[in-house]
Amino acid sequence: MTGRIILTCGEPAGIGPELAGKALASGVDFAFLGDPAHLPPDTAWSEIQTPDAPVPAGHLPVLRHDFPAPATPGRPEPANAAATIAVIARAVDLVMCGRAAAICTLPINKQALIEGAGFGYPGHTEYLAHLAGGVDVAMMLASTTVTPPCRVVPATIHMALERVPDALTPDLLERTIRITHAAMIRDFGIADPRIAIAGLNPHAGEGGTMGRQEIDWIAPLILRLQGEGLTLIGPLPADTMFHAPARARYDAAICAYHDQALIPIKTLDFAGGVNVTLGLPFVRTSPDHGTGFDIAGKGIADPASTIAALRMARDMATARG
Ligand SMILES: NC(=O)C1=CN([C@@H]2O[C@H](COP(=O)(O)OP(=O)(O)OC[C@H]3O[C@@H](n4cnc5c(N)ncnc54)[C@H](O)[C@@H]3O)[C@@H](O)[C@H]2O)C=CC1
Ligand SMILES: NCC(=O)COP(=O)(O)O
C-alpha cells in the first residue's frame, strides 16, 4: 500500500466534518479532502499540498478544497452541492493515478446534490462506477463487530420499490453474484466464498403461490452457477436468513433490494457497519450511516463506523498491494 487514504468530506452540513477529526483515533494514516472552514473549530489540522506530506502529530492532514458557502449544521446549502461532488471526483483522480492508497467517503445527502447541482447518480456507488470508466460494481455492507459476520449485497440499489421486480433481472443477479464472488476472494481473502441468494418474495415464493421469480429463474440461475463450481445456496426466504446460525452457513448474502439487505446489517451492527464498493479498480469504503442532520453540529456523532471504514480500506489496500 502506498500513500494515504483520502477521506472525502461528504455533505458539509452533516456529521462528516466532525467525524473526520474524531477518526484520527483510528490510527489509520488518512487525509481529509474538503474545506477546512467546515471542520469543528476545535479540530487540530494542517494543510498539505500533496497527499503524503507530513503533518505534526495529532493533526488532521487537510487537502484543501474550497467551497463557496459556509456549512450550517442540518441545512444543506445548494451552493455547496457542486463542490461536494467535485471532491469525490478529485479523490478518485488521486487514487486512480496512484497518489493515494484508497478512498473512504463521508456521507452525502443525495437529495441535496440532485436538487443543488443536478447530480446524475443516486449515490456514490453509481458515481464511482462512472468515474472508474463505467465498470460493473456492487454495493456491499459488511459488519465488523458481530460473529458470524453479516455481509449483504443488494442486487438492486437506490430505486423505488415498485421498480424492483422489473429491475431484478437474471443478468443483473448473475453479475452481482460474480462481482461478489471475485471480491470475496480478492478483498476478503476467502478462497471459496459461500454466497447465499435471497428470494424476492415472502417465503422465497412459497412454492410459487406467493410469486414465481424464484421458480422461474432464480433457482435455475443458482443451479447453473453451481455447475461452474461456485458455492451458492438459495433462493432463501429473506426473513430467516440473518440470525446467527443462518449467517454461519455463508460468507455473503445477495439480496433482491436495498432494505432487504440493509435492515439486517444496520440492526446487527449500525456502529461497526462498513459500506464497500465491490468491482472498482481501487478501494472505496464508507461508514454505513448517512448525514445525520438531526445531530450535526452537536459534537455527539459516533465515529465508530468511520473508523471501521478507514481500517477496512487500509486492510483491503494492503491486501491488494
Ligand atoms: N454513503 C452515503 O453517502 C450515505 C448517505 N446517506 C444519506 O444520508 C441522509 C440521511 O439518511 P438517514 O436515513 O436519515 O440516515 P442517517 O444514518 O443519517 O441517520 C439515521 C439515524 O442515525 C443517527 N446516526 C447516524 N449516524 C450516526 C453516528 N455516526 N453517530 C450517532 N448517530 C448517528 C442519526 O442521528 C439518525 O437519528 C440521506 O440523504 C441518505 O441518502 C445514507 C446512507 C449512506
Ligand atoms: N443506503 C446506503 C447508501 O445510501 C450508500 O450509498 P452510496 O452513496 O455509498 O452509494
TrEMBL record:
Q: Give the pathway annotation.
A: Cofactor biosynthesis; pyridoxine 5'-phosphate biosynthesis; pyridoxine 5'-phosphate from D-erythrose 4-phosphate: step 4/5
Q: Which residues bind substrate?
A: 124-125, 266, 275, 284
Briefly state the protein's biological role.
Answer: Catalyzes the NAD(P)-dependent oxidation of 4-(phosphooxy)-L-threonine (HTP) into 2-amino-3-oxo-4-(phosphooxy)butyric acid which spontaneously decarboxylates to form 3-amino-2-oxopropyl phosphate (AHAP).
Q: Which reactions is this enzyme annotated as catalysing?
A: 4-(phosphooxy)-L-threonine + NAD(+) = 3-amino-2-oxopropyl phosphate + CO2 + NADH
Localization terms from the record: Cytoplasm
InterPro entries from the UniProt entry: PdxA, PdxA_fam
Question: Where along this sequence does the record place binding of a divalent metal cation?
Answer: 158, 203, 258
Protein name (database record): 4-hydroxythreonine-4-phosphate dehydrogenase
Q: What is its EC number?
A: 1.1.1.262
- Cofactor dependence: Zn(2+); Mg(2+); Co(2+)
- Species of provenance: Paracoccus albicereus
Q: Which family does it belong to?
A: Belongs to the PdxA family.
Query: Can you provide one Gene Ontology molecular function annotated for this UniProt record?
Result: 4-hydroxythreonine-4-phosphate dehydrogenase activity
Q: Quaternary state and partners of this protein?
A: Homodimer.
- Determine the domain of life of the protein's source: Bacteria
As recorded in Swiss-Prot or TrEMBL, the protein's gene is named: pdxA
Per UniProt, the cofactor note for this protein states: Binds 1 divalent metal cation per subunit. Can use ions such as Zn(2+), Mg(2+) or Co(2+).
Q: Which UniProt keywords apply?
A: Cobalt, Cytoplasm, Magnesium, Metal-binding, NAD, NADP, Oxidoreductase, Pyridoxine biosynthesis, Zinc
Q: What else is known?
A: The active site is located at the dimer interface.
Q: Which NCBIfam families match?
A: pdxA, PRK05312.1
